[in-house]
Amino acid sequence: MREDKPAPTREERLAAKLRENLRRRKAQARGKGVEAGPGEEPEAE
After folding, report:
1. Which of 1, 17, 42, 45 has the most CB atoms lying inside 10 A of its own CB?
2. Cα separation, 33 vs 28, whole angstroms
């Protein structure tokens, strides 16, 4: 029952991985109660 879709391009795969990574990092930051902006490292405790 799988649709015949062409395989995603390298760019599409990378974009999807980046989105997953961002969601995971945001969830981890929420769990720790740390707010870090893009490109910023969370402060060490």
Report:
1. 42
2. 8
User: Distance (Å, rounded) from C-alpha 23 to C-alpha 37?
Assistant: 14
Q: How many CA atoms lie within 13 A of 39 on its CB side?
A: 0
Query: Alpha helix (H) ranges present in the chain?
Result: 10-32
Write out the two tokens for 39: 């490109």
For residue 22, the Cα-to-chain-centroid distance in whole angstroms is: 3
Say how many residues make up the chain: 45
* Residue indicated by tokens 């740390």: 34
Instruction: Give this prediction's pTM.
Output: 0.54
Contacts of 29 (CB under 8 A, 6+ apart): 35, 36, 42
